[in-house]
Amino acid sequence: MPLALVQRCNPVLALYVVLAMGAAWSLPFVRLAPNRLLTGEAVYLGDVLLQHGGQGNWALLLALAVWLCMAMGWPKNRVIQTGVVLAMACCLAGAWSLAGHFASSATPADNVHARTALGSGFWTLCALAWLAALDAIHRLHLSTLRRLLLQGALWLPLLLSLNEGHHLSIAKEYANHRDVLVPALLRHLHIVLLAVVPALGLGLLLAWRMTKTPPLRTAVFPVLNVIQTIPSIAVFGLLMGPLAWLATQWPSLGRAGISGVGMAPAVLALLMYALLPIARSALAGLEQVPQDTVHAARAMGMSQRQVFLQVELPLAWPVLLIGLRTALVQTIGLAAVSALVGAGGLGQIMFDGLYSAANELVMLGVIPIVLLATLADTLFKVLGALMRTPTR
Amino acid sequence: MISFECVSKFHEGVAAITDLNLHIQAGELLVLLGPSGSGKSTVLKMVNRMVNHDGGEILFKGKNINGFDVQDLRRRMGYAIQSTGLFPHRTVAQNIATVPRLLGWEPRRVQARVDEMLTLLAMDPKAFSHRLPHQLSGGQQQRVGVARAMAADPDVLLMDEPFSALDPVTRAALQLSLKEIHRATGKTILFVTHDIDEALLLATRIALLKQGRLVQVGKPLELLQQPANDFAVDFFGRSDGGLKQLSLRPLAPHIKALEGAPALHTISHTATLKETISLMATHRVSVLSVVDDHKAVLGQVQAADLLEN
Fold first, then answer.
1. Which chain A residue has its CA at the smallest distance from B70's CA?
2. Domain's final residue, options B211, B244, B277
3. Which domain does B259 fall in, by range?
4. How far is A279 from chain B (nearest CA, A)?
């Protein structure tokens, strides 16, 4: 009987609701501090609502509770689930606006140092709202493309209400660092592309060689696997020595930008990390190309190059795309650490925040990295859905 | 057109082909016939250098094939295989256009040729050009495979058991199509099969192979009437070799004038003796009336006359 109940209801959503209530009760929604470096005094969601709670807010909260109860009871009803997606999108925007309004009323206009920082309760509630929305979207059984589109639309209300939070600490950090944020973002992309594009070429070449000479894979994959297990900071450090040595031996290399610190060790290390997922998926892709097709292509007078470009690569592409997506997302994340060897990028902002104990500055570096990774992931999923090549 | 002079091939020291001497004339449809492991497929692949021979010489139009640029040589020879090897990501039209494109034909000429090929293989260009291979039946895929092999109007067509994976009805239809294409175009065709009936139906000459050696070459009827050795006798079927001969003999010379009223059951004048006897056995009669293409009675055949020369 309990099993039947679980199948009929939505236990996932129930768990999220319980967690959300716990977070609202026990974790600070925002923190009020006299300046950006102090942790500040915790303010809970209940207090914020009491201060800004006109009747309307409580009514909305009640409606939300009723709707969520309905969603738990009828997990297969598409109208109710669509309502949950919509409600969660509004919750994301609502939490932001609420924090923003609280900040503008709590911070004295003449005090430029006072800060209202987003608390762990805020982040937890947002994460739970997002997860609940994903769960509801999953229950709608949409095609890949529509699902991704809806996931993107989830952020729309928040984007539209961004201005509501301009008194929050994170918005102030943004205002103070606006001039470095865009260059850091571009630098980050630069590092990622410099690593992933050559890794794609190299990985493809390696995989292609491995299909022609199978013994090669017993030599290559163990090396790539070992690289993957070394912590990234260690690799950056390991590369600094040899690269610095190279630059002193051949000054022309140094003038071309190769040195122990900066872009060179970062790009090189990220390239090595990206190689494993790319080479592995490229090999898997090339191996599922029908042998007869390749045989026929050669027998009709295609050169090796033509066979690769016109037959093997297009047929391997859908599988390769999966590995490329993994590599790209992984590199966007790892590139943050490369700020430690002076490569710059969004990681620089993150570490600046860490060193000065300004949590909001850390978030200012982290959020664009997360968004970038999510964007790349979604983009490649869309690409994959669009070009699913039919095989026999 | 193609000559094998003392050709041999070794796989890891073991002889796969030994001292092969074979001369293929222009316009022939030569079938390489033999049990599996007889090396018939290897012989075919040596012609377009998909397999390199180790000894002797292979000549194409009087010139050693090693003297050609390998891609140039392959583009001059159509190639069709059992599994078709069609490109799954390309449409029917793009598949057929493969070699013409490699040869750098103009798009308009390629397009015209694709339509011509599809029509030749009894497929409507409008209906099939834009389909992908996986949207076709097995027989249609193989038709596209043959069309692709012939698209650039090659001097020679190499076919490696192209119809073996098809069901009997589809296979028979494609065999007739190929026979008709061969008659109409006069292409030189090298055809590999292990199916004796297919060989007897299609071949102008048959080369019988056993363990990499040529056992006998000749017209189908010659192989049946004068088998070179016990292997040839066994391979063509010791007990029903006579029936196979009947399948190669036309009914036409045995047609006699009508005696009395025409018989109830009729047979076409283009039938073989095997079909005639089969029909007599089916209906348990010894006389059939023979009709032409318009069902007009030409005469009759009697069972007793059929086995006389």
1. A301
2. B244
3. 249-306
4. 22
